Amino acid sequence: MLSSLKSMTLPLALTYFSDAHSTDISAVMAASALIMLPVTILLLCFQKQFIKGVTISGMK
């Protein structure tokens, strides 16, 4: 079991955060948006390569 906050992955840390702030749903949603932000930026930067990879892998 991960007991240290340093070794938790982001989804586990968000669960820990939402348990601690269960009544403040806006803080939980803000934390969720901040967790999704780097992945969204990476997807937008590499969108062309991502789409090309998906189309190539679909071909037989």
Describe it for me?
- With 60 residues, the protein is mainly alpha-helical.
- It has 3 helices and no strands.
- It has helices spanning 10-20, 25-45, 47-58.
- Helix 1 runs antiparallel to helix 2.
- The longest helix is centred in the middle third of the chain and has 21 residues, at 25-45.
- The model has no long low-confidence stretch (mean pLDDT 82).
Give a quick set of tags describing it.
60 residues, mainly alpha, elongated
Gross morphology is elongated
Mean pLDDT reading: 82
Q: Which structural class is indicated by helix and strand composition?
A: mainly alpha
Please count the helical segments.
3
Q: Indicate the low-confidence ranges by residue numbers.
A: none
Radius of gyration: 17 Å
Termini separation comes to 42 Å
Order of helices and strands: HHH
Number of distinct beta strands: 0
Share of β-strand residues: under 5%
Strand count, sense and barrel status of the largest sheet are: none
Helix content: over 70%
Oligomer: single chain
SSE layout and pairings?
Blueprint: H1 10-20, H2 25-45, H3 47-58
Helix pairs in contact: 1-2
